[in-house]
Amino acid sequence: KGKTVLEPHTPIIIRCDETITTNNIVNGSMVRFSVVRDVKSKNGNILIKSGAPVTAQITFSKSKGMIGRSGEVTVSDFHTTAVDGTYIPLSGSVSAKPDDKMALSIVLGVLVCPLFLLMKGEEAQLPVGATKTAYTVIENYIQTESL
Fold first, then answer.
1. How many CB atoms lie within 10 A of CB 39?
2. Is residue 29 a contact partner of residue 137, using CB atoms and an 8 Å limit?
3. DSSP track, 60-108
4. What is the pLDDT of residues 55-101, one digit of tens each?
């Protein structure tokens, strides 16, 4: 057994484990992701296992609105756990914002019919299975089994 260094800025591919939409979350909510593949040291020791849970927080959420304004959602503050239980903070964020129809609504509303101003925008959504690369923030020392 020994301690292995997990370097800062190590890329970790994470996958969204739940559908996140602006109509079912609020700022500050915790959401679930998971690690897509094993993160290994230079000598082949597994430091973070594939499938390890990653938690994150909704840091910005805006519901869809009238006049074609679309919803927006941003997820950040990712963290996971190494094979020895070490807390691993990750940097990165992921945002979703569908095409905003506000300009189209205002133009159509003024030129054609005021009912276009009632056109609703779309909810922002991060689907299950969406992947993102996050990065380790600090140097971590992980207890590993020697190969």
1. 24
2. no
3. EEE---STTPPPEEEEEEEEEE-TT--EEEEE--EEE-PPP-HHHHHHH
4. 988 877 676 554 445 567 777 888 999 999 999 999 887 777 655 44
Distance of CA 136 to the CA centre of its chain: 14
Kindly state the greatest CA–CA separation across the chain.
73
Tokens of 20: 């996140």
Q: Are residues 93 and 59 in contact, defined by beta-carbon separation less than 8 angstroms?
A: yes
pLDDT tens figures, 97-117: 655 444 444 444 444 444 444
**CB–CB of 61/72 below 8 Å?**
yes
pLDDT reported for residue 67: 45
- List, in order, residues 6 or more apart from 114 with CB less than 8 Å away: none
With tokens 């054609």, the residue in question is 112
* Burial label, 54 (beta-carbon count in 10 A; 0-12, 13-18, 19+): buried
